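User: Predict the full complex structure for these chains.
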Amino acid sequence: MTSKQKEIFLKKRYRAENRFKFFGIFSITLAVSFLGILLFNIFSSGLSAFFKTKILLKINFDEKKLGININTSEKEIKASNFNEILQEALLNLDLLTPELKKIELIDIVSVDATYELKRFYLKHKDQLNKMIEVSLTLSDDLDQLHKGNFPRDIPEDRRRFSDFQLKVFDEQNAQNKIITEFNFSFFTNADSRDPELAGIGSSLMGSLLTLLVCLILSFPIGILAAIYLEEFAPKNKITEIIEINVNNLAAVPSIVFGLLGLGIFLNYFYLPRSTPLVGGLVLALMTLPRIIIPCRAALKAVPPSIREGALALGASKVQTVMHNVVPLAMPGTLSGTIIGLSQALGETAPLILIGMVAFINVVPFYPIDPSAVLPVQVYLWSESAERGFVEKTSATIIILIFFLAFMNSFAIYLRNKFERKWS
Amino acid sequence: MNLTIITLIIVFSLSCFFFGKTRVSNKIKISGKKFNSLPVYYGYYLAAWCGLPALIILFFWSFSDLYFIKFLILSDFKADPTIDKNKLNLIFTEIVSIAEKKFSGQIPKNLVPYAERFLNLNKIFELSKLAVISSTIVFSIFFSYKQILKNIKARESVEKVIRFIMFFCAAIAVLTTLGIVLSLLFESIKFFTVVPIFDFITGTNWAPGRAFIRDASTEIADVENVFGAVPLFWGTFFIAAIAMCVAVPVGLFSGIYMAEYARSKVRKIVKPLIEVLAGIPTVVYGFFAALTVGPFFRALGETIGLDVSSESALAAGIVMGVMIIPYVSSLTDDVINAVPLALREASYSMGATKSETIKKVVLPAALPGIVGAILLAVSRAVGETMIVVMAAGLGARLTINPLEASTTITTQIVTILVGDQSFNNPKTQAAFALGITLFFFTLIINIIALQTVKKFKEQYD
Amino acid sequence: MINEKIKISTKNLNVFYGSKQALFDISINLVQNKVTALIGPSGCGKSTFIRCLNRMNDVIDICKVEGSIKIDGDEINKKDLDVNLIREKVGMVFQKPNPFPKSIYDNIAYGPRIHGLAENREDLDNIVEHSLKKAALWDEVKDRLTQPGTGLSGGQQQRLCIARTISINPDVILMDEPCSALDPIATAKIEELIDELKEIYTIVIVTHSMSQAARVSQDTGFFHLGKILEFNSTEKIFKNPDNKLTQDYITGRFG
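Assistant: Here is the predicted structure of the three-chain assembly.
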């Protein structure tokens, strides 16, 4: 090979080197930008759900129209009808409303508005027979319009609000009667068919209860199983079978656990459907190997000299392990458990199979109350046609990701802070 | 009731613990008598005897009493030959709901006495449960206290119990697998008695919605030819293949770059960032695929004159591929790091460039590990549910066009089991048959993958 | 020589790791309140031997011990015996210092706690102080008893381990090359300590260093390939050994 040939050959080799390196950088960039796009997409479409649009309406709490007086008991007030004063106030927005359009005018507020009025009155009973400005939730469609999630310049028949409603809305907006406030009810309300009322209260609580059941079951069982396998198990066939089992269980598709829950817990043991109890049970079985594996790794990392030191003092095997080994393995175990739980928190498919897809319009309180969970709420809302649910879905995902990020950073913190390196 | 009993047991056990402990330490102080174990172990001993037998009885009792009550109540109906097993179950649920005052509609008069009987039996069973458990507690406290006075080796006994509990916990893993296999098998066998297994595996028409059993004559006609699972197998394979087309190159190159090229600062940031992709719940990917990627491909297709369905195998596959990237990249990274430095140095010392070393030396050495990683990723892709449920569609057809809707095993399981879940119906049972297919398929891939990775790791240990 | 009381005696002790035999027919007597050094090339079975004396070999699954080991005339190589009670009587100090990752105080207090040797906090404090004083560590650590034991220097850690062993008041202390991980100054301190401790305890020490064996021990056993070739007073072994191999080893011709 001449030196000229050699130079060309060398150049070729370096080109190949650079190409190879470029592929690596390109792949990483691609993966990271996927993540970026995904998160940006979710956040940009979901943040607006944390706010809601309200309208300031002058309401006349007329004693006669309400059929109540200052002495009326709370129970009777709750039973009375605030619709009339609400409609009156709405119709006052545009006194020239043609008869046919009146219904459209009444529809600009949410169906919940009359209850909002009622709740307002219960807090301000001194307002009886007075005229006062109350802020009421706008209908979902105008809410979306105000947030800019819905274009206004398309033909009337392709949007869900009429030209007339749009006109009234713009007038009120020009008078600064349209306000935006933080959407507290999104966190406290249960699911609803109306997007402006739907909240994640029930699924948040459901997730919490489910995770609690899962933790209570999987944490002690997982740790005890790991301790047994790592410290006590004799080297025999039974142990080997258990070990292979644990490793494979960690890779079984989650939906299969759902089938297990359905076939055994619901169909055989008659446990209550759609409840955090069964959800937690199923997730606990799923989380179990995800706790056992890191716990065993943490136990394995404790040097044998610690065990020998305790044994030589006459501590029994159980004492040695419980007093000296397990505490040292705790940080690793805890961070593994938290990561396992965060996976359980995001799990959807098995919970769908055990019926946690039901429409739940009350916030659950006990593990045997039917409830939804956050990821299933995402699934349910993503199937809904209303525009308002898109931002709700994204917002739910933001909350979910927030919890996951919190749990995972906590796990990483635990590991970095407390895990000791053995030389 | 159960909650009360459990509280009762816990309270008793705790007091037993303190009683045993103080009792023995007092004895040591007063009489100077030497005990075999520390006082605290006598506390544990007493508490274990007090709590464990009672809890075990409670557990089995709670699961079996309903069966006894059911048996006793339904014994009257069993004589009637017109009432089959399903009907019996129905009658019993009716009786229960009457008894619990949850019955909606006209209450059948003939069942009312049974509802009363149900309530009575329930009361009897509950009371006798309480009685049996309390007497067990009393008896075992009595017995164990006698044992303590005999100065038994309490620590050894307590440790034996602890070991047994640990073993039981470890065995739960096996019980879970057993539970999975049994529950799947049980329903699948029922399914395969109606639909021949051969038709299921080779049939090309999947339309379980039409499998309604109207009467005996149409049963066969309706069940035949609607449970052919080949389109599902194909869809599953097809989408998984698309996913792997994304995940394998991107994951592999990312893994190689991180293991061989990236400076440790870059690695510290990028590696967790990519792993975030694996931590995002799959339902989020599903939502993203259905609402952003699907419509995006559709719009893209429109501009170049292609007809793209908004639910397509392509959208689901690509998004699934993104989700799987970290599984491939992290394992590749690990596996490459496990290849000994000496091999690399040998190559460098002969003047090879970094990429030549990687391609010719490191990758061949790491190949078994990488294959294992990819296999694990395939198993994830096959078992993935939410992305395909939300983005791949329901159309069970044999197509190689990635722009059409496609369906998978997991999608069909969810679709079948959401909503009405009456058992004893071939449609529901079909979901379990699909489940067992999925379970065994992924199990085999997992075993092969785990073995390959394990062997690879042992090689360089 | 007549007043000497035999503390430990082994007879026909054979140890197997799986199918491999590690010790062959070891029969020796160890005398109370004396330091016995066990020397020999690495892999000759010294450590295996002392691990038999407190049944530490039980920890290793494949290890099988046959023959008789008597402490104060009681057989300890029996299946149904509570090994924890033997280990309470026969303490052990390991090659590498292995303090628990707990405070200095808790390191010492662990043994008394599990064996119920202290009735109250005061008792425990006394035991800790007493043990640390005996291990010549008290003055160095008395102001930082709550700090982790792992923060001490290597020599201090090893003395902490000795103090930990003393805390449960054993009869015998086994030392498995206790100075091999230490510098010469720390070694000297430990050797001094061993000399003091033999007044109270019977000590068996495995060592690689001839000079150490000569300095601290009264009796010496020479192990070779799992057999004990010579067991005699230290003086005799180092001045005038019976066995040719012993002589070669001591003079550094092999090993």
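DSSP finds ten helices and eleven strands in chain C.
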